[in-house]
Design a protein that fits this description.
Length: about 475
């Protein structure tokens, strides 16, 4: 009995031993030159939490925005598809990995037949019965040249790449939700500003009409006042459209209509916790970003596929074998004298493939080169994103501070000119000019503040923040 099993056991041990071989080229991470991030004020990062380690709950301060992010992480369809893609690739890897081990199947059967007299060697008809049970391995490939192992490694790296793609989708989703929320709030403030300006201009129009009736001013001043009223109405309508579009975008991102019972909001100047994100070194920041890691795992998968293409040039050995028992009587099925076994190794060697294997190898090399280029592009794009966000962080804040001072100065100028106009010292055109400058300065201030908010959301994203909800203790 033991001698009968010895060939099969030996073959299995050889298969496991030889499966460690691989014809895939040794993987080397491509070196991409990126330079250094731009120097910005207060860039010292000692004692700060890196974006990748900072939870989004500890970065955003507005409770309503956090609620929108929670809904998006639960309901967003793009994130759900990305997660399902991870599950699909994981299942594909499990299928491919199973090919590295023999699959054992049990079988059993019974057959009962009547033999016709004319077909019988005994010269008379009779009934035959047969029963058999067994267990065997069908077409298990001895992975002598690492073909199956390379395919398994490629599937594993594709799984890791898809997992990081899902992480990149989550990071992008959080930043997109934040920017849509900021856009909706900013549009509402522009509506409020336009409404206030419209009311102010309508009140001023009443005084202009009185002066026109008194013959103090001409009809030109009246028409100018009417023009400014319609301009404010147009600004209000444009801001209302922007707000409605932002609300629609938010509803799409969170995967449901915007709820009515939302938490209280914070002013737009208080949307972030008072924390400065350190830039760090490019090599540390870029290589931790999920999109860059996804590109590297895709490259590793392409590298493993070269090994499988190379192994196709060499012989493939498959083993098929079984052990069991057979009998013409069910009661004698498991008697020792009725045991059966079979062992059927098979070897195939490609001789004439008409260039198919060579073309497949060339294709795998081309796909690896494509993966290298895509990885390099991912690193360079990530560097550009971080450099742009860091460069804008300091300049936008200085621009916003300057516009705050400008808006304050135009407000004071408008107040003084309005007093002079009401006392008949300043002309209506002078007052209109001051009011228009003040309105334009406030609009510019709102636009710049929105850009500052979007920059801070983008900076958190490009530095790899958004995978953690809470900052780990000790970070």
């Amino acid at each position: 009995m033991k001698q009968h099993f010895k060939p099969a056991v030996t073959a299995c041990v050889a298969a496991v031993t030889l499966a460690a071989c691989s014809m895939a080229p040794q993987y080397r991470q491509p070196q991409v030159t990126t330079g250094d991030f731009p120097a910005v004020q207060n860039a010292h990062s000692v004692g700060r939490v890196a974006a990748q380690d900072l939870g989004w709950r500890d970065y955003f301060a507005d409770a309503r925005l956090k609620h929108f992010i929670e809904l998006a992480l639960t309901n967003n369809r793009d994130l759900r598809v990305a997660a399902l893609n991870v599950d699909a690739v994981r299942a594909q890897y499990a299928i491919q990995r199973a090919d590295r081990l023999p699959s054992v199947a049990a079988s059993g059967g019974a057959n009962k037949a009547r033999i016709a007299q004319d077909l019988s060697a005994l010269g008379q008809s009779y009934i035959t019965e047969s029963y058999n049970v067994g267990m065997g391995v069908a077409a298990f490939e001895l992975d002598l040249f690492g073909r199956v192992k390379s395919l398994s490694n490629a599937a594993l790296n594709n799984y890791f790449a898809q997992q990081h793609t899902r992480d990149a989708t989550q990071i992008s989703l959080i930043a997109t939700v934040a920017k849509a929320y900021f856009g909706e709030r900013s549009a509402q403030e522009r509506m409020d500003l336009a409404e206030q300006t419209l009311k102010s201009r309508e009140e001023s129009k009443k005084l202009t009409d009185l002066k026109f009736k008194a013959g103090v001013i001409s009809a030109v001043d009246v028409r100018v006042a009417e023009t400014q009223i319609e301009a404010a109405r147009a600004d209000y309508a444009a801001a209302e459209q922007a707000r409605n579009q932002a609300r629609t975008a938010l509803a799409l991102l969170i995967g449901q209509p915007i709820p009515e019972d939302l938490p209280a909001t914070l002013p737009l100047d208080q949307q972030f916790v008072d924390v400065e994100l350190p830039a760090g070194l490019p090599s540390e920041v870029l290589l931790r970003r999920p999109d860059v890691q996804a590109g590297e795992f895709a490259l590793k998968a392409a590298n493993a596929n070269i090994g499988a293409a190379r192994a196709a040039f060499f012989p493939r050995i498959t083993l098929t074998g079984s052990v069991g028992s057979g009998s013409t009587e069910l009661g004698n099925l498991f008697m020792g004298i009725n045991r059966t076994w079979s062992f059927a190794p098979q070897i195939s060697l490609p001789i004439f493939t008409w260039g198919a294997n060579k073309a497949n190898l060339d294709l795998s090399h081309v796909r690896k080169n494509i993966a290298v280029a895509q990885y390099e592009k991912a690193v360079q794009s990530a560097f550009k994103d971080v450099a742009d966000a860091l460069g804008a962080r300091d300049t936008l804040q200085r621009q916003y501070d300057a516009q705050q001072r400008s808006a304050k100065a135009t407000a004071e100028r408008y107040r003084l000119v309005d007093m002079r106009f009401k006392h008949g010292i300043a002309s209506s055109l002078e007052r209109l000019d001051a009011e228009r400058d003040h309105y334009g300065a406030r609009q510019a201030l709102l636009a710049t503040r929105l850009t500052v908010l979007e920059n801070r959301a983008d900076l958190y994203k490009v530095l790899g923040g958004g995978l953690k909800a809470e900052t780990a203790v000790g970070e």
